[in-house]
Amino acid sequence: MPISALDLFGCNKLKDFSPLAEMKQLKRLSLPENCEDIEFLRKLDLEMLDNERSTSYSSKTPEKFWKDWDSKKKSGGAKAPSPPSP
User: What does the radius of gyration of the chain's CA atoms come to, in whole angstroms?
Assistant: First the structure.
């Protein structure tokens, strides 16, 4: 059975998202806050894409996600800041 929804939000050590490029049936994707190198995801036919967690399950459209992502990139912050070291 193909995977249509994938929640990777808490997977902050995950760095290589390239296997997602082959998941053409994926419709809902939640990424870690610190994700990078995900431009290839623009080619997927997603219904929901996000890398933020709120009190309710996110329903950000890919269009809104990429608009926010591009804006953060232009301002020099396309990823969330790393937590301070102990």
Answer: 13
Nearest to 66 by CA among 28, 33, 38: 38
pLDDT digits over 39-53, tens only?
999 999 999 999 887
Alpha helical stretches, state H, the chain? 62-74
pTM of the model: 0.78
Could you tell me the CA-to-CA distances from 59 to 27, 46, 69, 73, 85 in Å, in that order? 11, 11, 16, 22, 32
Q: Hey, which bits of 1-86 come out as E strands?
A: 5-7, 28-30, 48-50
Query: CB within 8 A of 66, min separation 6: which ones?
Result: 42, 49
18 φ/ψ sector (left φ>0, alpha ψ -120 to 50, else beta): alpha
Angle at 44 between CA 43 and CA 50, to 5 degrees: 110
CB count in 10 Å sphere of residue 50: 23
